[in-house]
Specification:
Number of strands: 7
Order of helices and strands: EHHEEEEEEHH
Strand order of the largest sheet: 1-7-6-5-4-3-2
C-alpha cells in the first residue's frame, strides 16, 4: 500500500526542519508516542536505529526505526533551493514501512511538507487490515502532520489536548 500526504506550515523551511529533527519535540506532536530511544547511533542522524513504542488505545506496539536519509545533515543555513529530505524505515510485528518526507519552501515564511508512505504486511491478519482499512493509515499520517503543524505554528501539545 502506498500513499502521499501533504500540508503547508506557516514557518520558514529551515525552522520546520529543525523542529522536526529535535527529539525533544516528538512527544508534543506525535500522538501515541510512548518512547523513542536510539539503540545504535545518534538520534535522527543517518543510519541511526531506534526502538519506538506507540500506543493505540490500550495496545502498545514496539518497532525498530532506521534513518535512511537526512539531507542536508546540517539543518542550519540551508540554501534556498535545497529540498530537505528525511527518510526512515520502520519494522514491527507483521509490518514494514518506509516514509520519505520532503520539505520545500512555499514562500519566505511557509513550508510545504510532502510525505510518501509505503506499507508491506506479513501474515494474513495484517494483510487483511491493510486491504480493508487502507484509509486508516493515510488518515493517521495526515493527523500526525496536522498535529505537527499545530505544534510548530501555535505550540499546541497533543498531550494536553483532547481528541
Amino acid at each position: 500500500m502506498k500513499y502521499t500526504n501533504s500540508i503547508e506550515i506557516a514557518l520558514p523551511r529551515e525552522r520546520v526542519a529543525q523542529l522536526l529533527a529535535d527529539p525533544a519535540n516528538m512527544p508534543k506532536w506525535l500522538r501515541g508516542l510512548v518512547s523513542h530511544e536510539p539503540v545504535r547511533g545518534e538520534h535522527g542522524q543517518l543510519g541511526t536505529e531506534s526502538k519506538v513504542v506507540l500506543r493505540t488505545g490500550n495496545r502498545e506496539t514496539e518497532a525498530t526505526e532506521t534513518i535512511t536519509r537526512r539531507d542536508p545533515a546540517d539543518l542550519t543555513e540551508i540554501p534556498e533551493d535545497v529540498v530537505v529530505h528525511f527518510d526512515r524505515e520502520i519494522a514491527g510485528p507483521g509490518m514494514w514501512s518506509v516514509t520519505r518526507d520532503r520539505l520545500t519552501a512555499a514562500g519566505p515564511e511557509a513550508t510545504r511538507w510532502e510525505s510518501d508512505s509505503e506499507y508491506r504486511f506479513d501474515g494474513w491478519v495484517m494483510r487483511l487490515f491493510g486491504v480493508v482499512w487502507p484509509g486508516a493509515f493515510r488518515k493517521q499520517s495526515q493527523r500526525h502532520m496536522e498535529d505537527f503543524k499545530a505544534f510548530a505554528e501555535r505550540g499546541t501539545d497533543v498531550r494536553e489536548g483532547k481528541g
